[in-house]
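Lecture 7, part B: from sequences to assemblies.

Below are the input chains for today's worked example.
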Amino acid sequence: MKKYEIAKKKALTPEIGQISVYAPLVAAKAKAGQFIILRVDEEGERIPLTISSAVDGLVTVIYQKIGGTTMALDLLNEGDCLQDFVGPLGQPTEVEDLGRVAVLGGGLGCAIALPVARALHQAGNQVDLIGGFKTKDIVILEEEMSEACTDLHICTDDGSYGYHGFVTGKLENLIESGVKFDHVFAIGPLLMMKFACKLTEKYNIPTTVSMNPIMIDGTGMCGCCRLTVGGEVKFACVDGPDFDGHKVDFDEVIARNATYLEQETKAREKHLCRLGGGAMNG
Amino acid sequence: MANMQNVRTLMGDQDPANRVKNFKEVALGYSTGAAMNEADRCLSCVNKPCVSGCPVGIPIPDFLRKVADGDIAGAYEILSNANALPAISGRVCPQETQCEGKCVRGIKGEPIAIGRIERFVADWAAFRGITDKVEPVPSNGHKVAVIGSGPAGLTCAGELARMGYEVTIFEAFHVAGGVLSYGIPEFRLPKSVVKREVEKLEKMGVKIELNMVIGKVLTITELFEQEGFEAVFIGSGAGLPMFMKIPGESLVGVYSANEYLTRINLMKAYKEGAATPVLRNKKVAVVGGGNVAMDAARCAKRLGADVHIVYRRSEAELPARVEEVHHAKQEGIVFDLLTNPVSIEGDEKGQVQSITCVKMELGEPDASGRRRPMAIPDSEFKMEVDAVIMALGTQPNPMSYEGTPGLEKNRKGCVAADENGCTSCPAIFAGGDAATGAATVILAMGAGKSAAKSIDEYIKSKQ
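Predicted structure of the full complex, as structure tokens:
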């Protein structure tokens, strides 16, 4: 197999894809919670993606087609090679025997929550994995998730499948019904993590969040991914991506992640335009 | 008899009004005639003070004499034997404090423009394909790993390859060159020049492994035990950006100079349609007075901003090369000297709106020998800006070597290495910013060269 070759590709939903990339050195070192940075082509930007699994020389990542780069990534097929693939970066999630834990995954965040839940489960924890999606049609990784935890709870915003409501609602239900969680891991969109932390703060449950700010190098060099944690500036790429959720200044991260919203929208439109043109010509 | 003209031979520049609209090289370089005329100003002094000012010890009067005689190929041979990256150092060295600062002609007039001639010779050789005519030296069977492909790593690798070592450079980024690629802008050091020098090394047999973050994907210990390297050179630079720890530094629109420059230089965000974005600002404050501050300011200018340099000391203390300050001023960059930021303010969306500064005055000299800047009471004022770039210097990034058994660090957190590049581990060597903290390209090159010599001695001593 060639360097950075896409060995396997699968569409999990129309919007979410999964690729397994041949990168044996990265695969040998990868641990739950770490990420890679890839570039699709010679002119491409560097984007971080969390490692979903790493076996037999293959590193699996899951992406959502939200911008120009992820759309370009999705155009590649099995046998194609990525331009660059670097990792494993960041600190692995601290996996220890905590007792009973809840792992919250929001949408694509479930892809990241999965290896964390699996590692925690293997370490002897009783794991409630709560996966939230907008609707039934876009539920991903259900089978894998159910194998990686003690109890899987799927939630949908519209009630089309599983619990009707957000993951925070399900978590609160469990807590209110008497489940005593020793630790919560929340992985997903910033707003979901922010509200999960508000909830766990109320119940005084230690909470780890996995941050996903904008990055370039992923080695601490640019400081682009900085965030404020307990009043101190931290770099998500080297100090994280996991942080104590009760100390993270979420509003700041939310603002920083919107820095290039305008450019990203343009890139997406341009890409859709190109795709449209291609389809018409083809 | 030498040319006794008291001033330097002029080198053309791109007109400031035009160049602020492009990223093409500012300094246009000498013609053969201009280089010969300038080189002929050399008096061939017996004690060669210029050589003592050169961190890589180029026999300057010898190559200048060749140029003056019109033997440019001969000059290149002398130059390239002493300096692995002449096209780069000729462009970015602070010559005024090194070779040119010691030039005898500088006493009564202007010193010889050694840097300009060095650049001319290197470019001349490249245009004629001489640079490309390098052959790999037969292998001596010994493997050396170099961490980082910046000036220290490239020089160290080049020197070792010349001695017959099998050298592999491990670079974390997707492009080789380190600060030469991500930091120094195209208009000061064209990336084609960096590429040329890197390709020369590859032709000499140096292997370059990109996307390899040592410390993460492989540790130094694994380089020895699994990969079979006999010595490791750490040239990973000083990559961690510093911030001021003032309120508002995480607002949208506050950049470290590293981030801003990386987006522009490495990721080509200045180009229309680039995949990596960078903000196009109206008014930018660049905090700091070094070369990196000048680079960031001049990039911001080229992206259409009105740019202010905010520096807490006076013009005399600006650490940047004189030429960079001169070029920045020509380009209309405003210098707010004796000015220090105290906070950055944002709007309701968390975007930078203004920077609040105080006026400073210089007091008694501090530990660095420079007069200590002190805030003038009640001198606070606010400047409306939509971006702030922090160019305050950098710290070493310990990622590549953290946790290596027995490897000692110094007080600054750099790898503790002596002037020969030796560390507390006999098989590990270090040099450049990774060992000294942020300094210059040429000092890193000098360190890479010394370390290569030490590595050779070490490996020979084992046999």
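Note for the exam: Residues 441-462 of chain B form the longest helix (22 residues). Keep this in mind when comparing with the next example.
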